[in-house]
Automatic annotation (TrEMBL):
Matches recorded under Gene3D superfamilies: Ribonuclease H-like superfamily/Ribonuclease H
GO molecular function: nucleic acid binding
Protein's name according to its UniProt entry: Tc1-like transposase DDE domain-containing protein
InterPro entries, alphabetized: RNaseH_sf
Source organism per UniProt: Araneus ventricosus
Length: 101
């Protein structure tokens, strides 16, 4: 993955990847469709939003986030990982435009 971030474009990184025979797959630095952690944060946020009553203070929010993180179904994470092939295929097909994830 290459999000065009400056550290990822350093000559030493390029040289290492080339020496290891690692091909880059370039995509936008701002593509949340391909950033699994963004999707995980979304799932966590949705879980917190379903709580009743909703968190009223920062401390409540911190507690709610920690509790929901512990309860987060591992199937959500598994799906995010296994869906990357589909996501990348769609991303290439739409030529770096938004994909429905």
């Amino acid at each position: 993955m290459d999000d065009n971030a400056r550290p990822h474009r350093a000559a030493i990184v390029d040289d290492f990847l080339e020496s290891e025979g690692i091909a880059r797959m370039e995509w936008s630095a701002y593509s949340s469709d391909l950033n699994r952690i963004e999707n995980l944060w979304d799932a966590l946020g949705r879980s917190v939003c379903r709580r009743f009553p909703p968190p009223a203070t920062l401390r409540d929010l911190e507690t709610a986030l920690q509790e929901e993180w512990r309860f987060l179904d591992s199937a959500v994470v598994d799906h995010l990982v296994t869906s990357m092939i589909t996501r990348c295929t769609l991303y290439i097909k739409v030529r770096s435009s938004h994909i429905p994830y």
